[in-house]
Design goal:
Blueprint: E1 3-9, E2 12-17, E3 21-28, E4 31-37, E5 46-53, H1 58-67, E6 73-78, E7 83-84, E8 89-95
Parallel strand pairs: 1-6
Antiparallel strand pairs: 1-2, 3-4, 4-5, 5-8, 6-7
């Protein structure tokens, strides 16, 4: 089992098992949204992570995420340390379903 890792602030981070990923969508230009099953166990919503990316690089970023799902863990975005899976990712925002 592998995990996606996200950090968007010193006290705001999330780790999701790969199998909880529902979809990756292009929410707007330079924005991808990763949708996950709810961490609160709800069935009427879910958690999401919004990635800010370089404009028109949606497909490149989606492919990189998918390719890295074969590893044990995948650091997608760490805003605190400035580490990203690929240079086209520039920030993330975590939204937890409560």
């Amino acid at each position: 089992m592998g995990f996606f890792i996200f950090v968007d602030d010193a006290d705001d981070a999330a780790v999701y098992p790969y199998e909880r990923l529902i979809s990756i969508t292009c929410a707007a230009n330079a924005t991808l949204k990763m949708n996950f099953e709810s961490s609160a166990g709800k069935t009427d919503g879910g958690d999401s992570v919004t990635l800010t990316i370089t404009a028109d690089k949606e497909l490149n970023v989606m492919n990189a995420i998918i390719e890295n799902m074969y590893s044990n863990s995948c650091l997608v975005a760490d805003d605190v340390n400035g580490e990203y899976l690929v240079p086209e990712i520039t920030a993330c925002a975590i939204s937890i379903d409560t």
